[in-house]
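Re-run with default settings, no changes from the original entry. Doing this only to confirm the output is reproducible before filing.
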Amino acid sequence: MTSRIQSHRMPENLYFITTNAVYHAHIFKRDVIKRILVDSLHVGRVLGQYKLFAFVIMPNHVHFLLQSQGKYTPATIMREYKKSTANLILRHYECEGNTDTLWALAEAVKNPGRKNFAVWDEGFHVREIFSKKFLMQKLHYIHHNPLQSHWQLAESPESYVWSSARFYAGAGRSLIPLSDVRELMERRITDVLEDGLGSSSIRDAAGLDDATLSRHRRLKRRKGVYYARKLRSMAHAYARGDLTLDALNASVQGWANHVRYGNTTGLRKAILSSMLIEKTVHKASGE
């Protein structure tokens, strides 16, 4: 029985996190409140609590894709994030004299002895990222959340500024700096290439003994790294509309055929499955 190759596993401490406003109230509907939530995300990143790969701020909930760092866990990250953002949001309502909202947030408190106002729902939801497929699913979900039929907050993912979509669509910088999940995947591919076909883990996983392996030519590491970077560049060009799907497909097929002389099925799969290839759709004004 073959075993999973260690180099193909996802990086540790990579999470998809969701947390909601108290009673799912639309507390975050206004842009000024969204800005507080986004800027606070940036603070946690600067303080070294996590690497932030993707986010979306919705009217009553938020989604994050992050990798915790050092001593920080999802629990400590969310505790500090929710505490600091609640304080800033309450300060804003106090300064603008929004007594109706403050009264509603006071009424939402479940344990009056602990706090006077409630901005966030208790707890949060966290899913550890266990595969590239799951990672890409969550990245797609984050960026398309504003387009869902019950929200309809934007015409395209990249036109909703309160998310990381425009960064990944190649439409410009997001509101705050991000770590690029595509580079994370590229580093994992490099780890596979560093091992090479001669490593015992890959030989065992592929069911190859030394006699079988000697009949196959090894793919040079630099060629694999080069094509991973080339494919990433072409994916950006396709998203912008500068490259056709036929041209992209021809390049992928050509490279796959070029390296089929060696036992590189797993390596090709690692490179090709790590790429998020989406077409950016721009609607004409007035539609």
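The domain at 12-179 is CATH 3.30.70.1290 (Alpha-Beta Plaits). Residues 74-95 form the longest helix (22 residues).
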